[in-house]
Amino acid sequence: MRIAVVGAGGVGGYFGARLALAGNEVTFVARGRHLAALRASGLSVETTGTTLRVEAVRATDDVATIGPVDVAMSCVKLWDVQPTAPALAPLLAEGGVVIPFQNGVDAPEMLRHALGRDRVLGGVAYIAAAIRAPGVIAHTGTMARLRVGAFDNAQTPRAEAFVDACRAAGIQCDLAPDIRRALWEKFVFLSALSGCTSLARQPVGVVRSDPDLRAAFQAAMQEAFDVSRARAPGLADDFVQQQMKMLDSLPAEMRSSMLNDLAAGNRLEAPWLSGAVARMAKEAGIAAPVSATIYAALKPYVDGAAH
Q1: Are the C-beta atoms of residues 4 and 63 closer than 8 Å to each other?
Q2: Nearest to 162 by CA among 152, 149, 144
Q3: Average pLDDT in the chain
Q4: Residue 217 — pLDDT band, cuts 50, 70, 90?
Q5: Which residues contact 116 (CB under 8 A, 6 or more apart)?
Q6: Alpha-carbon Rg of the chain, whole angstroms?
Q7: Who contacts 130 (Cβ-Cβ below 8 Å, separation ≥6)?
Q8: Tens digit of pLDDT for each residue in 88-110?
Q9: Dihedrals φ, ψ of 28, to 5°?
Q10: Helix (H, G, I), strand (E, B) or coil at 129
């Protein structure tokens, strides 16, 4: 399968490496020192006590040089989804599709608006991974899963083909029967996780073990759940309680990608996570004080280190 990984960070780097090692024709789109390292010495993925190595990496910073692919995996940060969308069109010229694996719930609609509704599938990535050094991806814990789905039945064969390629590469990947619901399931949990870990500047273990932080996390998740009921009904009544159990199963040292970005002085996805909960709650006439407060506290850092 011909695959373009647009954004070779934690998500794109990890899953792209697996797909490349399985014999797929994978091209990584990266920038700066990370791109230089990929070209010079390949891609390394540190995971569960071992290191995966992709020696001869196809890598570029110019999407226009790739040519048509079967699947474009959009793994850029949320603020880059809309600006990069038009450049993806040539990749889809021979019937290819783009699968966004961003956090939040906004990316699919952004891409569908720019590229056409029949060119976009839905994707959800569950993994804690980040660039540790140029050319090196570090994967924390054992969770590494993808969910892919079609927004209408005509797209299902394309989704199935990508799922098959992932499974052949040893990736845990399943075809989501309701991809909208899958997107909201992740959003409800992640908006709280990213917000609370970033606000506290602490990993998961600290957030779940401190009674006040744990209560704030559950309250933020409840607000996102209430928004989901207004926007896309379908989550189970006990979803929040089940997700609290999931929180307790995560590695204590796990850090959200937004906390990593905050620590590095990078831009934050807060406007599309806690900020989105607050915005959508206001539109629906629902109270979301915890999410609104988290977003307000992180706003000075949204564009990078505070000045």
Answers
A1: yes
A2: 149
A3: 95
A4: very high
A5: none
A6: 19
A7: 9, 10, 137, 138, 257, 260
A8: 999 999 999 999 999 989 999 99
A9: -100, 135
A10: strand
Structure-block tokens of residue 276: 């989105």
Residue among 118, 5, 7, 148 at smallest CA distance from 66: 5
Residue 207's identity, in one-letter code, is V
Strands 25-29 and 58-60: parallel
Q: What angle do CA 98, 275, 272 make, to 5 degrees?
A: 10
pTM of the predicted structure, to 2 decimals: 0.91
Distance CA 62, CA 58 (A): 12
The values of phi and psi at residue 47, to 5°, are: -150, 135
**Is residue 287 within 8 Å of 231, Cβ to Cβ?**
no
Domains of the chain: 2-177 (3.40.50.720), 181-301 (1.10.1040.10)
Residues 81 and 100 sit within 8 Å (Cβ to Cβ): yes
pLDDT of residue 307: 40
CA-based nearest residue to 162, from 62, 26, 60? 26
Block residue for tokens 């891409």: 111
Within 93-155, residue ranges assigned H as helices are 107-115
Q: pLDDT tens, 127-175?
A: 989 999 999 999 988 999 999 999 989 999 999 999 999 999 999 999 9
Tokens of 40: 């010079």
The upper half-sphere exposure of residue 237, i.e. CA atoms within 13 Å in the direction of its Cβ, equals 0
- pLDDT tens string 21-61: 999 999 999 999 999 999 999 999 999 889 999 999 999 99
- Tokens 């909201």, residue? 184
Alpha carbon separation from 163 to 6, 70, 228 (Å, rounded)? 18, 13, 26
Which amino acid would we find at residue 198? S
Burial class (CB in 10 A: 0-12, 13-18, 19+), 90: middle
